[in-house]
């Protein structure tokens, strides 16, 4: 009786559990798992170390103030200058424009999916949004270069459509899936008691959404916008291809048709041609360090907000109660403060519009405010609800139309290039003729090697975090390292791979360096998805196995991993899709534009579909057919991977419901 009482007080993760093994083999396994978990933190440390090692000399020779606030970036001049002010200002301008586009569309789409769409419509729209997230950035850039910039040039009678507006539109589209998915999760987390209480008091459903649900989910929606901002700031290939790449601050500052150059674009353009060890080389690593600091601040802010949401949503003393409770008087006071903050936020956004947007858009903003003040507020609640629903339908409609346009353009113009010769042949005439077989095989080699590198480390790290530890300072540090690794821009992974693997370890530009670099990039995805899969396994299975005399590791290996396998497989498939579509991490570590031979060892360079498409579209005129053919093959490869992940997830969810 006493023993049974003690058993109930123990937890499965308690190291003093009566049936836990303390033998040597379990201790060795635990040590290996801890090393895998610590690998993420060590990777972040090494990335910072190598960026500092190669970036600090630039601060010493140029001067930190001149480097950060110098107004001219001209490394090729008679007197080279390395002022990054136009680079980071352009980065912030392009990101601001992207958020002005993506935030209302993303939040409106999330509200529609969560609150209005039927389950059948939701089952169609959610995979569509996930497919939007799966389109490789170089395909977005190719679409922007060929279609978007040409449309802007013709519509606004410009000399060139490659400008700030093109970059903001493209980054806004790319940030939409992040904002939609995170905002939807935040809205879904609002308890149904809030909805029922509001509707029971006679409010319309739109009043319930706008005055109860959205304010309750405001922190999560804010985190979604910040994460979308981080996605936009860290993007490389798309902005390189559509922004014009002129290192100038728009004059006037609100000139959205001015060409600009971002921090990531500068790294992508200049790193491949710089002399190693030169002042220009060190200045580029200084740019990478500045980019990393900006993205880390953005992602840490989002993580802090999300953690606060989780702390509010869970508590150790709510025994047997639901995760959320009805709001008390203090909660209503907090809502009042939130309303005040929202009023100030509206004022700030309006002032930013006055600063950054041209006179036409500012006039439109004023008209909308007057419309809201003198007409919309006078509408009765039912008419207001109809108008709001129209806007929500328009939001999700625009998202789906954008996805349809991109897919239609790539598929319709890429199909004529499809042939057996194109898929199995070798490139000719700088890629204008022939096929892309070496690029297909090189992509598969890179992705396969990256997964072989990242999968065992990621799974082992997740097992340690879920099965062997409680929440502590060590696990917090490890998770912070994984989150920071996940928020690191892909171009920074490429620079780290170049500095550490290509130069320091003397691998040279080769397949192995690309595999490891891509593996580091997808490692956080594998860790996170594996963690969630392991947490979904009921503790009763662990208790039963340990009670029968199994060791900790035997329980994990034979009882826990089997039901968690579908989630682990899903994370692996998503990682494959991301690795297959990335260009920036392999630009300086693994790839060449064209070769007539397949790699004979891991120390040979390879072709890859994303890089091949980038060079074809930006440096080889007269290759339109093969450009679209390459884009279609890459798109189909990545889309197939994401579709498999969606099918696996849906099958797993159905089996759980059954």
UniProtKB/TrEMBL annotation:
Cite the SUPFAM superfamilies for this sequence. Answer: MetI-like (SSF161098)
Q: Where is the ABC transmembrane type-1 domain?
A: 88-302, 440-645
Compartments, record wording: Cell membrane
Keyword Disulfide bond listed: no
Membrane-spanning parts: 28-49, 56-73, 93-117, 129-152, 164-191, 212-233, 281-302, 344-375, 387-408, 436-466, 491-523, 628-648
Q: Which InterPro entries match?
A: MetI-like, MetI-like_sf, Phosphate_PstA, Phosphate_PstC
User: By its UniProt entry, which Pfam families does this protein fall under?
Assistant: BPD_transp_1
Query: Which residues lie in coiled coils?
Result: none
Identify the domain of life: Archaea
Q: Name the membrane topology term.
A: Multi-pass membrane protein
* Annotated GO MF terms: phosphate transmembrane transporter activity
Q: Give me the Gene Ontology terms describing cellular component.
A: plasma membrane
Q: Name one GO biological process term.
A: phosphate ion transmembrane transport
Signal peptide (from-to): none
Protein name in UniProt:
Phosphate ABC transporter, inner membrane subunit PstC
């Amino acid at each position: 009786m006493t023993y049974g009482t003690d058993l109930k007080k123990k937890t499965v993760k308690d190291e003093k559990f009566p049936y836990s093994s303390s033998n040597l083999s379990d201790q060795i396994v635990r040590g290996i798992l801890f090393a895998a978990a610590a690998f993420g933190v060590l990777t972040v440390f090494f990335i910072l170390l190598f960026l500092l090692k190669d970036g600090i000399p630039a601060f010493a020779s140029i001067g930190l103030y001149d480097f950060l606030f110098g107004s001219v970036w001209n490394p090729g001049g008679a007197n080279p200058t390395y002022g990054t002010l136009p680079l980071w200002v352009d980065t912030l301008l392009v990101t601001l424009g992207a958020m002005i586009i993506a935030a209302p569309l993303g939040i409106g789409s999330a509200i529609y999916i969560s609150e209005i769409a039927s389950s059948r419509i939701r089952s169609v729209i959610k995979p569509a949004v996930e497919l939007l997230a799966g389109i490789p950035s170089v395909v977005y850039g190719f679409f922007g270069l060929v279609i978007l910039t040409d449309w802007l040039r013709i519509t606004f009678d410009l000399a060139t459509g490659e400008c700030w507006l093109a970059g903001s539109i493209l980054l806004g589209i790319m940030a939409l899936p992040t904002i939609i998915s995170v905002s939807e999760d935040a809205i879904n987390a609002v308890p149904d008691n809030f909805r029922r209480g509001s509707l029971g008091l006679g409010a319309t459903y739109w009043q319930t959404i706008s005055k109860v649900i959205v304010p309750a989910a405001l922190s999560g929606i804010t985190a979604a916008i910040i994460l979308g901002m981080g996605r936009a700031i860290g993007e490389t290939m798309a902005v390189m291809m559509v922004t014009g790449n002129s290192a100038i601050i728009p004059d006037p500052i609100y000139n959205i048709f001015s060409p600009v150059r971002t921090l990531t674009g500068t790294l992508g353009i200049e790193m491949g041609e710089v002399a190693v060890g030169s002042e220009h080389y060190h200045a580029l690593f200084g740019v990478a360090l500045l980019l990393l600091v900006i993205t880390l601040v953005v992602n840490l802010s989002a993580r802090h907000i999300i953690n606060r949401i989780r702390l509010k949503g869970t508590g150790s003393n709510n025994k047997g109660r639901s995760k959320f409770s009805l709001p008390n008087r203090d909660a209503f006071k907090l809502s009042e403060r939130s309303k005040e903050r929202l009023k100030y936020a509206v004022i700030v956004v309006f002032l930013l519009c006055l600063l950054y947007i041209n006179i036409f858009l500012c006039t439109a903003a004023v008209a909308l405010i007057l419309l809201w003040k003198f007409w919309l507020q006078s509408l009765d609640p039912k008419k207001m609800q109809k108008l709001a629903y129209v806007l929500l339908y328009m939001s999700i409609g625009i998202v789906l139309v954008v996805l349809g346009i991109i897919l239609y353009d790539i598929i319709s113009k890429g199909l004529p290039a499809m042939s057996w010769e194109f898929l199995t042949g070798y490139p000719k005439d700088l890629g204008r003729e022939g096929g892309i077989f070496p690029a297909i095989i090189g992509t598969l080699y890179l992705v396969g090697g990256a997964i072989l590198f990242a999968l065992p480390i990621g799974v082992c790290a997740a097992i340690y975090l879920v099965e062997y530890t409680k929440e502590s300072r060590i696990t917090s540090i490890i998770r912070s390292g994984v989150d920071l690794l996940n928020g690191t821009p892909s171009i920074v992974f490429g620079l780290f791979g170049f500095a550490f693997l290509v130069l320091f370890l003397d691998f040279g530009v080769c397949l192995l360096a690309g595999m490891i670099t891509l593996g580091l990039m997808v490692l956080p995805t594998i860790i996170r998805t594996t963690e969630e899969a392991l947490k979904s396994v009921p503790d009763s299975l662990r208790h039963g196995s340990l009670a029968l005399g199994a060791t900790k590791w035997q329980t994990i290996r034979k009882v826990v991993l089997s039901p968690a396998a579908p989630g682990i497989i899903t994370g692996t498939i998503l990682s494959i899709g991301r690795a297959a579509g990335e260009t920036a991490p392999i630009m300086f570590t693994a790839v060449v534009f064209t070769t007539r031979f397949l790699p004979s060892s891991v120390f040979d360079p390879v072709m890859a579909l994303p890089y091949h498409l980038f060079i074809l579209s930006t440096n080889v005129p007269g290759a339109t057919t093969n450009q679209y053919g390459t884009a279609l093959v890459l798109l189909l490869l990545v889309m197939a991977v994401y579709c498999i992940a969606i099918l696996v997830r849906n099958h797993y969810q159905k089996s759980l419901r059954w």
